[in-house]
Design goal:
Layout: H1 22-28, H2 33-44, E1 61-64, E2 70-74, E3 79-80, H3 90-100, H4 112-125, H5 135-144, H6 151-167, H7 170-180, E4 187-188, H8 190-198, H9 207-216, H10 229-245, H11 251-258, H12 275-288, H13 290-293, E5 302-305, H14 309-322, E6 327-329, E7 332-334, E8 336-343, E9 348-353, H15 365-368, H16 378-387, E10 395-398, E11 403-404, E12 410-411, E13 422-425, H17 426-432, H18 435-445, H19 447-457, H20 478-489, E14 493-495, E15 500-504, E16 510-513, E17 518-520, H21 524-533, H22 536-539, H23 549-552, E18 557-562, E19 568-574, E20 579-585, H24 596-599, H25 601-611, E21 627-632, E22 645-650, H26 687-698
Parallel strand pairs: 1-5, 3-4
Antiparallel strand pairs: 1-2, 5-15, 6-7, 8-9, 8-20, 10-13, 11-12, 14-17, 15-16, 18-19, 19-20, 21-22
Length: 700
């Protein structure tokens, strides 16, 4: 959009029209008025033989949210977004006709009397002073001629106007005019003008808004409401008066419209409304339809996308309000953020944020930044565990352990704060984000099995074939994580993320469409069980995301993630309607100093709460065949009458059959819940105990 300091109408490259008799018209331009009249009469009939090129309006490609809101504009040579005649309100059509050509609907397309009157004045003074132009003549000049005011141009304009009038209907002429005329502020056509001045599409124009735009056409620089609001209002009211005189509106409508304020959008540029999402649209089209992608800017396409404008607004607000700020690095505030929200039912990308400020950095972290996801990778680990047939209440012991790495040394996993939590059922291990239990489960099912599960669910980045992958040592993107958990949210079907639904040409011809693609990769029963397990971080009093549950306040699964040295903070979670991954970190990999629940959790929770505020709270549908059973929280086995219990869900045939050991009996338990003679000791949580455990874990 041009600066308001420059109020001169942008120049239009003239499209010269070559017609038979052009030289003769040039000679007639210097003759007397009677000669001109005779020449016009002689040449009037042959004028119908003039061959005009098809009108071509250079136009911008417009990107729309699923609800029809304008998201972004890919500019060509001019800011123009053609719309069909049916989309232009009657108030806009009538306002323009009333002030620019009030006989448009009832008189011939040309005004010979006006033309010759103007010609007489022009010949008398030896130069062009008057126009005498109808809408049809103005359109002829705009489409095919330069802005130079000469006798020659006026005569040629007459014949072009005749051709337009005999080729197109009045509606078509008005359609072309409203999509072509300059409205100031760099906006060509009524759609661009509506967005520029009022921030909404042309279909939503009110009567006073239509009158204001119609009034701007005569002198866009002078009647610009941003520059000269008093003149703009006066001109608008003049249009309204004329509309009432012609019977287009009633006296009451006139007075009401005149009392309305300007209500301008503030001159917000049409771009930068969701720039990171626009990147996704362009990237997707480059892969899916290169022929369309090649001509995006200036091609005049209308691109219908999957974006939810309310959800995108909620995402922008959540990042702006809850992204922690620490310092400036090379002039860019750190940390940065990436957010992706997908509808798991169809793969529609509903919101996307690739950074804190697109004007400062265009790097799209939501799509391209592969960062260590920490414990959010446990989604894929425990999906593998359940899918491999281990009972949901199976246990592992959180205690010092080491694994040989094949180089004469050992890999020693530890928990945050070097705390050991003792024997934990899977649900509690997830709630506490216990790393030792996770690595033990990874050792049980094998890294290759977990990697295969992650890739089947939607992770595309390479994952290291070792135990540390269970704790998120391999980099992934927020888009991959949102896609991966969508598989759990929708009952086991991998989704293909979709950003573009349809692309149409300016004429309305559809050149590209896309539709949901869902591939079953898990049974609905496994997906449901894993989802129930990942309720724990939100619902358990000791869950790592427990403080976020009151904010989102609806059934959801969630998992925090924190990478080594707290370089990356993640929260990945979902409801039946929305799967969202949030990453927060420094681009230079400096430690963030925040865990996942503190660094990314507030963004995720507030986004989800606001994005779903108008959506009904839904529970995850339970597939048939599952069994709910009360088990001991300490052993995962059937209650013995003296243990604390909780309700757990099981696959058919995987419900525990053994009783938990009796009160006071000794014994240990296998990791899969089998009974052995002695219970595990309570973990020593004192400082001395933690230090002793740390020293033991480091000894060979």
């Amino acid at each position: 959009m041009p600066s308001r300091k420059d109020r001169v109408k942008p120049s239009r490259a003239p499209q010269r029209l070559i017609v038979v008799g052009h030289g003769a018209l040039r000679r007639l331009a210097g003759a007397s008025l009677p000669v001109i009249v005779i020449g016009v009469a002689v040449l009037l009939f042959p004028a119908t033989w003039i061959s005009l090129p098809m009108p071509h309006l250079p136009s911008d490609t417009s990107i729309y949210a699923q609800g029809g809101q304008l998201v972004d504009v890919l500019y060509g040579s001019q800011n123009r977004m053609p719309v069909p005649y049916s989309a232009i309100p009657k108030s806009m059509q009538n306002a323009l006709v009333a002030i620019e050509d009030d006989t448009f609907w009832i008189e011939p397309a040309l005004d010979p009397v006006g033309i010759f009157r103007a010609a007489l004045v022009d010949v008398t003074h030896g130069r062009i002073l008057q126009g005498g132009s109808t809408l049809t003549q103005q359109l002829a000049k705009n489409l095919y001629l330069s802005d130079r005011r000469t006798f020659q141009r006026k005569i040629v304009e007459f014949f072009i106007s005749m051709k337009l009038a005999t080729t197109y209907s009045r509606q078509q002429i008005l359609d072309l005019y409203l999509n072509d005329v300059y409205f100031g502020e760099g906006a060509y056509g009524v759609e661009a003008a509506s967005e520029t001045y009022f921030g909404h599409r042309v279909q939503s124009l009110t009567l006073p808004e239509s009158a204001l735009l119609a009034g701007v056409v005569n002198a866009p620089s002078y009647f610009d409401p941003y520059v000269n609001p008093k003149a703009a209002i006066s001109r608008r009211n003049q249009v309204l008066t004329r509309m009432q005189q012609l019977g287009y509106i009633s006296r009451r409508q006139e007075l009401t419209a005149k009392a309305a304020g300007l209500h301008l959008s503030g001159g917000m540029k049409l771009t930068n409304r969701a720039p990171y999402f626009t990147q996704l649209v362009e990237d997707d089209l480059a892969k899916l339809d290169p022929s369309v992608a090649k001509h995006l800017a200036g091609g005049g396409y209308a691109i219908r996308t999957t974006l939810s404008w309310p959800m995108q607004h909620a995402a922008d607000r959540a990042v702006a309000d809850y992204l922690p700020f620490s310092s400036l690095v090379h002039g860019i505030p750190e940390p940065e953020a990436g957010l992706v929200a997908i509808d798991p039912r169809n793969g529609y990308v509903r919101a996307l944020v690739g950074g804190d400020n697109y004007a400062r950095t265009q790097y799209n972290r939501a799509l391209f930044s592969r960062r260590q996801p920490g414990s959010t990778m446990k989604y894929y680990l425990y999906t593998t565990v359940i899918n491999d047939g281990y009972p949901t209440s199976s246990t592992q012991v959180s205690a010092p352990v080491r694994f040989p790495n094949g180089h004469g040394t050992y890999y020693v996993p530890h928990n945050y704060g070097y705390v050991y939590n003792g024997r934990l059922v899977i649900r509690r291990a997830i709630a506490l984000s216990d790393n030792i239990c996770a690595v033990k489960w990874m050792n049980t099912v094998g890294p290759k099995a977990m990697i295969a599960t992650a890739h089947a669910m939607g992770i595309e980045s390479p994952l290291a074939d070792n135990l540390t992958t269970a704790l998120g040592s391999s980099g992934v993107t927020p888009m991959e994580m949102a896609r991966g958990v969508s598989t759990l949210a929708n009952g086991g079907k991998r989704v293909q993320p979709i950003a573009v639904l349809k692309v149409t040409t300016p004429s309305g011809r559809v050149v590209f469409t896309d539709k949901p693609s869902l591939t079953p990769v898990l049974s609905p029963q496994v997906a449901y069980i894993v989802t129930q397990l990942f309720h724990a971080p939100l619902l358990s009093p000791q869950g790592t995301a427990h403080d976020l549950e009151p904010i989102i306040n609806r059934p959801a699964a969630a998992k925090t993630g924190t990478s080594n040295l707290q370089r990356d903070a993640w929260l990945v979670g979902y409801t039946p309607q929305l799967a969202t991954a949030v990453w927060v970190g420094n681009d230079n990999y400096a430690p963030l100093g925040l865990t996942g629940d503190r660094g990314a959790g507030p963004i995720w929770a507030h986004f989800m709460a606001n994005a779903l505020a108008t959506h009904k709270k839904r529970t995850f549908p339970s597939p048939p065949g599952l069994v709910w059973k009360s088990v001991c929280i300490s052993t995962g086995l059937l209650p013995n009458g003296c243990c604390s219990t909780y309700r757990e869900v099981f696959l058919p045939g995987h419900v525990p059959v053994d009783l938990s050991p009796g009160c006071g009996s000794g014994g240990r338990f296998s990791s899969t819940g089998g009974v052995t003679p002695r219970p595990a000791p309570s973990p020593d949580r004192s400082l001395a105990g933690i230090l002793r455990g740390l020293i033991r874990s480091l000894l060979p």
